[in-house]
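seq:
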Amino acid sequence: MEFFRLENIAEILMILGIAALIIEVAVLGFSTFVLFFLGISLLLTGVAMNFGILEATLITALWSNTLLTGVLAVSLWKPLSRMQNKVGSKEVDNDFAADTFILEDDVDMQGKTIRAYSGVQWKLKSQQPIASGTVVKVVKTEVGVMWVEAQD
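struct:
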């Protein structure tokens, strides 16, 4: 218990800051920013106390962390939120692409034709109407929808 004395407050703050950052990134997946701001604040306060910039007392640690966490939250919330909300739109290549089969019913843009595949009822859609009996291939999938084209 010798480590947890007031003489080691700078080291304790740095360890707590690193722990908060690890929990935020590794456990929570950077989904909340609260522990991120607190971790940076604890780390900066510990470093400042270690170098003698701040006095190594509990009151100084409390006020420093309160102010730094607030300043970090106000200044970094919007940029981090924008970064987190960026969603990339990328076509996914899946096992259904290039699957070929013979149509049992006519297919058009409305998606009234259903095909049971892999235990799921899929709506079949096409840009151009395709008659039943035509060999088609799957060119794209969406949730519950297979887009098909006539095979050449």
